[in-house]
Amino acid sequence: MPATVIVGAQWGDEGKGKIVDLLAQHSDLVCRYQGGPNAGHTIVVGDETYKIRALPTGIVRGKPCVIGNGCVVDPEVLIGELDEFERRGRSTDEVYLSGNAHLIMPWHVAIDGASERRLGKLAIGTTRRGIGPCYADKAMRLGIRVQDILDPKILRQKIAVALAEKNLWLERVYESEPFRLETVAAQYESYAQRLRPYVTDTSLYVDNALRDGKSVLLEGAQATLLDLDHGTYPFVTSSNPVAANAATGVGIGPGRIDRVVGVAKAYVTRVGEGPFPTEIQGPDQERVRELGHEYGTVTGRSRRCGWLDLVALRYAVRVNGIDQLALTKLDVLSHFPELPVCTRYRLRDGAETSDFPVHQSDFHAAEPVYETLPGWDEALDGCATVSDLPDAARRYAEFVERALDVEIALIGTGAERASVLTRA
Ligand code: GDP
Ligand code: IMO
Ligand code: MG
After folding, report:
1. In which band, very low, low, confident or very high, does the pLDDT at 105 lie, cut at 50, 70 and 90?
2. How far, CA to CA in Å, does 160 sit from each of 84, 318, 339?
3. Does residue 234 have a cis bond before it (omega within 30 degrees)?
4. Ligand 1: which atom is nearest the Cα of residue 8?
5. Which of 18, 301, 305 is the best mutation target for the ligand 1 pocket, counting ligand atoms within 8 Å of the beta carbon and taking the most?
6. In this model, does residue 133 exceed pLDDT 70?
7. Which of 21, 41, 102, 137 is catalytic?
8. Do residues 348 and 365 lie in contact, with contact meaning Cβ atoms separated by under 8 Å?
9. Rounded to whole angstroms, how far apart are CA atoms 257 and 322?
10. pLDDT score recorded for residue 296
11. How many angstroms separate the alpha carbon of residue 35 from the centre of ligand 2?
12. Which of 104, 219, 226 has the most ligand 2 atoms within 8 A of CB, as the residue to mutate?
């Protein structure tokens, strides 16, 4: 398949990194199309664990990697990752960074934190990496882009213009420390030295790859329910993780996308605030968290855990046009005698629906209606194919397929790279 999007189908951390790593074996190029260092994608290879925030996961397989125009780039984080991969003996020569991607500046991080503090109980629970303020400046046409580092004079000018406004905000609205032009300019000039060789016309590069018949993976960060337009606004991120934005985020036509693979856990997690109908009440929440090691990659926060929500997943299938699903972390559900799966929501008027509510108040008040599926008591580590799965585990996956009318092409049975069952 020439261009495949890998998209998170829930609230993030579904195991996108692991699925991209698997598919990257047979791909020529891996691209990130949105988000920034709010992402944390984990790949486990034997004893080694990679937690990647800025680079496409394809770097672990040594594949050419593109950071598309739709991404926001924190140079310090990106340089840290480039250095780290080089230390581990990997080449970063084939990393291509879009000149149109926006730079996260120190005031974005400061404003993200200050705004969260100010919101108090209404806080979004962001990763505090400056993501929202950076995308806001992009929309305000006040942003500083990667290509601005190519010319020290322009870079300094843009920093001066931005600071004139940001320092007012920081001092007068947030009562925090201003930034000094000299300090920021010197810091970003030094980042510029390191990053300049990677800056590329990535739209042209990806288009040429597709024209040459190469196979391209478009790696989503965050997920459908965190999407700025389609997620549970305002408890969302500030970009569009949904599959259609993969075209905009790397600069190719939408018709180039051949396949959309959605990644969903066999249950659900959410980090940060916001409504979550199937959040588990009672001790099973902690049990799932412990078994699934559900602690954030970026912030270390405990992830909230819930039972599988097929209403939300059906919505993700719709808004992304998901062709196939990867169902990850099925192993975590082993040893639960029964597994509730949400198939409908009960709304305030008592009506039941299998469609995701369009109005926030309906969603906030939605109560999950569960069907209870039998659990299984065997660990899944010994399974080499889907047919090795315990009957109840296989039936769990088949139930999901039937409810969504989408094929589950991959099933995750462990964190390690090789712990994936294919359907073939
Ligand atoms: P991403 O942000 O979507 O790439 O997901 P994260 O890496 O943030 O979180 C997924 C976590 O689950 C990581 O620690 C993975 O190593 C782990 N993981 C992925 N797939 C599986 C699986 O099938 N089983 C288990 N037990 N762990 C998995
Ligand atoms: P990956 O790519 C899970 C959540 C934050 C917060 C909201 C807004 O690893 O799946 P932001 O910092 O983006 O402004 O925070 O989005 N969030 C994620 N949750 N996985 C992620 O990325 C996330 N990136 C952001 O917790 O609720
Ligand atoms: Mg993650």
Report:
1. very high
2. 32, 44, 57
3. yes
4. 3
5. 18
6. yes
7. 41
8. yes
9. 12
10. 87
11. 9
12. 226
41 catalytic per annotation: yes
Average pLDDT over residues 274-287: 96
Find the residues whose C-beta lies inside 6 A of ligand 1: 8, 12-18, 40-42, 44, 293, 297, 328-329, 331-332, 412-415, 419
pLDDT of residue 1: 59
How far is the centre of ligand 3, averaged over its atoms, from the C-alpha of 181 (Å)? 34
Q: From ligand 2's centre to the CA of 264, what distance in Å?
A: 15
Q: Which amino acid type is present at position 404?
A: L
**Does 108 qualify as catalytic in the annotation?**
no
Locate the ligand 1 atom nearest the alpha carbon of residue 39 and give its number.
2
179 pLDDT above the threshold of 90: yes
The tens digit of pLDDT for each residue in 225-276 reads 999 999 999 999 999 999 999 999 999 999 999 999 999 999 999 999 999 9
Radius of gyration for the chain, computed over Cα atoms and rounded to the nearest angstrom: 22
**Atom 20, ligand 2: which residue's CA is nearest?**
12
- Of 18, 55, 72, 127, the one to substitute when testing ligand 2's pocket (max ligand atoms within 8 A of C-beta) is 127
Whose alpha carbon is nearest atom 27 of ligand 1?
Answer: 415
CA-based nearest residue to 423, from 415, 403, 182, 400 = 400
Q: pLDDT for 10-55, tens place per residue?
A: 999 999 999 999 999 999 999 999 999 999 999 999 999 999 999 9
In tens, the pLDDT along 338-379 reads 999 999 999 999 999 999 999 999 999 999 999 999 999 999
Identify the sign of the CA torsion 68, 71, 74, 78: negative
E strands within 203-248? 216-219
Ion ligand 3: residue ranges with CB closer than 5 A: 13, 40, 297
Q: What is the mean pLDDT of residues 89-93?
A: 94
Q: What percent of the chain has pLDDT over 70?
A: 100
In this structure, what are the phi and psi dihedrals at residue 217, rounded to the nearest 5 degrees?
-105, 135
Between strands 420-422 and 29-32, the pairing is unpaired
Q: Which residues contact 324 (CB under 8 A, 6 or more apart)?
A: 259, 260, 261, 262, 406, 407, 408, 409, 410
pLDDT at 424 over 80: no
User: Mean of the per-residue pLDDT values for the chain?
Assistant: 96
Q: Closest Cα to atom 25, ligand 2: which residue? A: 38
